[in-house]
Design brief:
With about 250 residues, the chain is of the alpha/beta class. The chain is built from seven helices and twelve strands. Helix 1 (about 1-15) packs across helix 2 (about 75-85) and helix 6 (about 195-210) runs antiparallel to helix 7 (about 230-250).
Length: about 250
Amino acid sequence: MRKTVFLFLLFFMALHSFGQSKNLPLQISHLTGDFYIYRTFNDYKGAKISANAMYLVTEKGVVLFDAPWDKSQFQPLLDSIKIKHNKNVIMVFATHSHDDRAGGLDFYRKKGIKTYSCKLTDEILKKKNEKRAEFILPNDTIFNVGKYKFEAYYPGKGHAPDNIVVWFEKEKILYGGCFVKSTEAKDLGYLGDSDVKEWAQSIKKVQAKFKNPQYIIPGHDGWTNIKSLDHTMKMVYDYNLSSTTSQKSGQK
């Protein structure tokens, strides 16, 4: 009886998670094919802010790109995926060291799920005495999972010193994480660990390497507009121009 009630509750939770209610702590939307975008929320400067992440359903299992920002959604995400797709999460990639990306590494590692980060992310987490991934990537690594192939790529500093992006060549999907700002963004957001001067060069590397993306997934806010990388470049350019102008004014 208890098992039946538990399964019903999981089904009810997953059914609502796949809806579009803005009040839900976990929102899952279909991107294309076997790709899904999920959103969780947290407080930033007194406002509730969404964080985008992605997962891929393969014949081997589900690959998760970044953990929920909201810690209370670590397990509900696994439950929702299991109910929706009847598959387990088998891999989790953190695209940089901030909590909205790497905060769930320890939780998923303890679940027996393979967790990954790049070497720079691992070094930052180690220095901060925070939980780390089980497996460390070279800066650029190609993975084959089931019929899917993707590349984890480090373009250089930007939003964070360790930010990587993930590219699916066949599907033309660029998962940018917080390296890419949504077209809805009015500013560059948190810059505590950023290198805004190098960010522009890093964007150019991504644009040169990964041609004609059909989908670009930014770390926060809306993700349906594929001009988000161009928008990020413009904001980075404007920020650097403003900083240079301010410095020159101060020297007078």
